[in-house]
Design goal:
Number of strands: 24
CATH topology of the largest domain: Neutral Protease, domain 2
Number of domains: 3
Length: 667
């Protein structure tokens, strides 16, 4: 699977059908007030004196992470754009408008710096981009102007410039877009010009060549129809993600949590007394504080199996797998119980130990209460899916759903299994796709053709590294246009990583054949990277070397190839993959752990990102250095070099650190 730094629900999607947007839910009631009787218009207010909400996207013209260029404070948001690689920084608002008034206070502006409202056309074929600028000259004077983009640069709007000798800060700037006219009002000046903005614009506050501080941003907007449909679809996907994530984390455990633990009367009284001593009552708290309170009780009542069991289940519901497993193991040692074994099976599954999970699950089945049998079926199916037996998982879920049709988690996982094994909602493409695969998608033929053409240079690299790769491979490529359908399908296989998985390779998916799933809703470039990553897994699995290849090699090659970029007809690998933009740990211990991880151990949630980073770094080092022949031997299935590679990690780690530090950042 390809990991994704989760931005999907904030990125623009292709609207498939009209949905009504609830802007109060989308932006939050603290920020947005709708116009009376007009759900597609209203006022968005941001004080800019604290943390920025999720609908504000931060951009920079330089490479890499730019979040340190935006510093919220009580005095306002400071935007720092004075270094060479950060010439322009912009806080863009996820809002598309046909009619718009933007106003804010400019608190300060460096000499030589420019502060602007940037209006970006939602449809470049229908509209133009505009900059509404306040520039402070080196001599301390000011210039106001409107500029319009032509696709390559921004040119002055004729007659829309003004010189101002002095401006007293804070100074209010107001930009108005309405009826084919754009205006900038500030410091007693009012510049106007004709504007071509059919299709709507997206606003942002931009700073270049210096520091500026702004506060009290207000946007009065009438939403562009295309943006509102996009935003409604993303909001639906956000709801779906929250619902599915709850099912993935608590779908099985909610039943275990709600079921009474079979304690003795003395044990129940002891545990109840410990609960009563705490205020607020632990069982009324949210997941994380509840887990902490129950852990304290379990540590106090070390011989009470109910206390250990409840602490273990609470820890799992809070996402702490290690603590959950430890408390449940203690409970099982004190007083074995089917309900504890069921929870312990889930803990083992999440920890990446399917064998121990299956053993605990089998032990739980002997005398499991009837009320917990749906949870037993659900966990049985998830373990089948983890082994790659999607057909078995689907059969288990279908049978269980017939018996317990009202069980929400069973229903959601059953729908996921159906999508993964026999999707009915997607149409087959009229021609073979990449690598000769059958394609199922709700994309248009034109969109698929463009995507296939973009993939070609990457697939040629597959053949460079796998010279015996067949021209036509068996299997299916599934591409969803929007994220909601993709998330529903991905639940069974990627539930524990649902909000970080951009795509999947299933060795036995649709009709029992190799299957790749991806989603266009995360952005065109992300879709390209995801397909390269997952198609590599499918292609590599068809070669002798790919059948038993180490996980770090397989995943490392997938990340390496997907991070390439086409420059003047040639592939380049001179950038740090975006998955690792916020840093990566390449110490000998991390490398050793990743290279030694086998099977499911590589994908344990606590270590998966570090393992991917280590795999990529070693592959990139071998592919871009003097050890290309060694990498080719590994890909061909020669395991002899592995021992030498593992023995040299203490020397390799610092070299990797130095080389990786020289890579450019950004996708």
């Amino acid at each position: 699977m390809r990991l994704l730094l989760w931005l999907a629900l904030l990125l623009p999607l292709v609207p498939l059908h009209a949905q009504e947007l609830d802007p109060v839910e989308f932006f939050g009631a603290a920020f947005f007030v709708p116009e009376p009787d007009n759900p597609r218009a209203g006022t968005l207010k941001l004080a800019l004196d604290g943390d920025l909400p999720a609908f504000v996207d931060l951009h920079s013209s330089g490479d890499g992470d730019c979040s340190d260029r935006f510093v919220p404070a009580a005095a306002g948001l400071e935007i720092r754009a004075d270094e060479k690689l950060h010439r322009t920084c912009e806080a863009a608002i996820d809002l598309g408008a046909d009619r718009l008034v933007v106003s804010f206070l400019a608190v300060s502006l460096d000499r030589g710096a420019t502060l602007a409202v940037h209006l970006r056309a939602l449809d470049p074929e229908k509209g133009r981009d505009y900059l509404c600028e306040l520039r402070r000259n080196r001599d301390g004077s000011f210039q106001l102007q409107l500029r319009v983009g032509d696709g390559a640069r921004f040119n002055p709007v004729p007659g829309a410039q003004a010189q101002v000798a002095e401006i007293e800060f804070p100074c209010e700037l107001t930009v108005t877009l309405q009826g084919g006219q754009i205006s900038l009002a500030a410091a007693g000046q009012n510049l106007t010009g004709a504007a071509r903005t059919d299709g709507g614009v997206r606003p942002g506050v931009a700073v270049s060549d210096g520091h500026a501080r702004v506060r009290q941003l207000r946007l009065d907007a009438a939403f562009a129809a295309s943006w509102a449909e996009d935003a409604a679809r993303r909001l639906a996907a956000r709801r779906a993600l929250l619902r599915l994530r709850d099912l993935a984390v608590g779908g099985l455990l909610q039943g275990v949590w709600a079921h009474e633990y079979p304690a003795t009367a003395v044990q129940r009284e002891q545990f109840a007394a410990a609960l009563a001593r705490l205020n607020p009552a632990p069982l009324t708290l949210e997941a994380a504080p509840r887990a902490g309170a129950l852990a304290a009780i379990a540590d106090e009542l070390a011989d009470n199996p109910q206390a250990q069991h409840m602490a273990g289940v609470a820890a799992l519901l809070a996402g702490n797998v290690i603590a959950g497993r430890e408390y449940l193991t203690r409970a099982e040692k004190i007083a074995p119980a089917p309900i504890t074994r069921l929870a312990l099976a889930e803990a083992y599954r999440r920890a990446g130990n399917p064998t121990a999970a299956e053993t605990a699950l089998a032990q739980a089945a002997a005398s499991l209460p009837g009320a917990l049998k749906p949870e037993h079926a659900l966990l049985t199916a998830r373990l089948s899916a983890a082994r790659g037996d999607l057909g078995g998982a689907a059969a288990t879920l279908e049978a269980a759903l017939k018996t317990w049709p009202e069980h929400a988690a069973l229903r959601a996982y059953c729908e996921s299994a159906r999508s993964l094994t026999r999707p009915a909602a997607l149409a087959p493409a009229p021609r073979a796709g990449p690598l000769g695969l059958r394609v199922l998608s709700d994309l248009t033929d034109k969109q698929l053709a463009v995507l296939t053409a973009r993939l070609e240079p990457y697939l040629e690299k597959f053949r460079v590294w796998l010279p015996n790769l067949a021209r036509q491979l068996a299997g299916t490529l599934v591409i969803y246009n929007g994220p909601e359908d993709y998330l529903n399908a991905a639940l069974l296989v990627a539930g524990d990583q649902l909000d970080n998985v951009a795509g999947m390779y299933l060795p036995a998916g649709i009709e029992g054949k190799p299957t790749v799933l991806a989603c266009r809703g995360f952005g065109e470039d992300e879709l390209l990277r995801t397909l390269v990553h997952e198609l590599w897994h499918l292609a590599f699995a068809t070669t002798p070397g790919g059948k038993d290849a180490p996980r770090w090699l397989n995943e490392g090659m997938a990340v390496y190839l997907s991070a390439g970029r086409v420059d003047r007809g040639a592939m380049n690998y001179d950038r740090l993959p975006e998955e690792f933009a916020d840093g990566l740990d390449l110490c000998p211990e991390s490398l050793r752990r990743a290279l030694a991880a086998k099977g499911a151990d590589f994908y344990v949630p606590a270590a998966i990102r570090a393992n991917y980073a280590a795999g990529w770094a070693v592959v990139w080092h071998l592919a871009s250095g003097d050890n290309v022949s060694l990498l080719r031997r590994l890909l061909a299935g020669d395991s002899e070099p592995l021992a030498g590679l593992a023995a040299g990690l203490d020397r390799l780690a610092p070299e990797l650190g130095r080389r990786v530090a020289g890579l450019k950042k950004g996708s």
